[in-house]
Design goal:
Elements (H helix, E strand, L loop, with lengths): L13 H18 L4 H12 L4 E4 L6 H12 L3 E5 L6 H5 E6 L4 E6 L6 E5 L6 H4 L1 H8 L1 E4 L2 E4 L5 E6 L12 H4 L4 E3 L6 H9 L3 H6 L7 H12 L5 H16 L3 E3 L3 H17 L7 H12 L4 E2 L8 H11 L4
Length: 321
């Protein structure tokens, strides 16, 4: 039996929004076990109106997390399985000539959903990957000279396998930059893995979960996140982090202004998800690796090679105000 949307008629303000968010987080935690911090980051990404990239080995719950987000948030959902023979038209849609009317009619592709799962996005060719660029940045697609608006809210959650696996095409920097955050789920601990082995199948559990939020409540949450207070010293801290990534000899490519804006938006959203009174340094640090890791490029001589190592290096070397 599905759970109903108990928050459907609540006023969209103040404490009621916090209640809605806590309920959504708890519902996600019942499906994705032992990943509370990752769930918080995923929610922060979506509340900041960003797009999410989940990179990890197959079988660690990337797809289930995306499906759970759509289900719990009450959003329309489409999954696109990226393969080497996928074409852009398979994603955005195609114009079909109708003999009866003598006109072309646009048939929308799966990208026209409120939450789109681009599953194993790096298994497709760069040409197919590029079909997501305009959608993610402009919230629209252009086909045959016509512009078509995408739904609002609109989120892309992409999963990708590690780049050393067979049959993958690395995402270019310009496309990686379209993702507000990049997450890794990792293996579950022993206790949570036992619960997975002995409990209800996650897909069956997902089918029994009803929406906790809806697009209207989600839009109100996003508006509330944009108003979270951030002090001047916090802005100074973020600027110091960004400046360090640009000046460090260990980093070849530092954060761009878009990356700095992403860090501000993500920190605000994380503070809201954690019910903080404003943005604290802890919020900036909590989101830094997921926001900056896929945007930083290590210098060839650097000892810090992975996104996690680079992010830790930056945080350890910038003074907290």
């Amino acid at each position: 039996m599905q759970q109903g949307n108990t928050l459907e008629k609540l006023p969209l303000s103040g404490d009621k929004l916090k209640v809605a968010l806590v309920a959504a987080r708890q519902s996600l935690g019942n499906i994705i076990l032992g990943k509370n911090s990752e769930i918080a980051l995923a929610l922060a990404c979506l509340l900041a109106r960003g797009h999410l990239l989940i990179e990890d080995l197959p079988g660690l719950g990337k797809t289930i997390l995306a499906q759970s987000l759509a289900r719990v948030l009450g959003l329309s959902f489409q999954r696109i399985q990226f393969t080497s023979d996928l074409l852009p038209a398979d994603i955005v849609g195609v114009s079909i000539f109708r003999q009866e009317s003598g006109e072309f009619e646009f048939q929308r592709g799966p990208i026209f959903a409120e939450l789109v799962l681009a599953d194993e996005v790096n298994r497709a060719t760069p040409k197919a990957q590029s079909a997501l660029l305009e959608a993610m940045e402009e919230r629209q697609v252009s086909v045959d000279g016509q512009t078509h608006s995408l739904p609002s809210p609109y989120f892309v959650v992409a999963t990708q396998n590690p780049s050393d696996q067979i049959g993958t095409f690395p995402l270019p920097e310009s496309q990686l930059d379209r993702f507000l955050m990049r997450l890794e789920l990792g293996y579950p601990n022993e206790e949570n893995e036992r619960a997975l082995l002995t409990g209800t199948d996650r897909r069956q559990l997902l089918a029994e979960v009803g929406p906790v939020l809806n697009p209207e409540v989600l839009a109100a949450l996003q508006d509330a996140v944009a108003k979270v207070h951030m002090t001047d010293p916090l802005i100074d801290y973020i600027q110091a982090l960004v400046r360090f990534t640009r000046e460090s000899p260990d980093i070849e490519t530092g954060l761009s202004p878009r990356g700095a804006l992403a860090l501000v938006a993500a920190a605000r959203a994380h503070a809201y998800v954690e019910s903080h009174s404003g943005v604290f340094p802890d919020d900036v640090q909590a989101v830094f690796a997921s926001v900056a890791g896929h945007r930083l490029k290590p210098a060839s001589s650097s000892a810090y090679r992975t996104p996690a190592e680079l992010s830790r290096y930056v945080l350890d070397n910038v003074h907290i105000p």
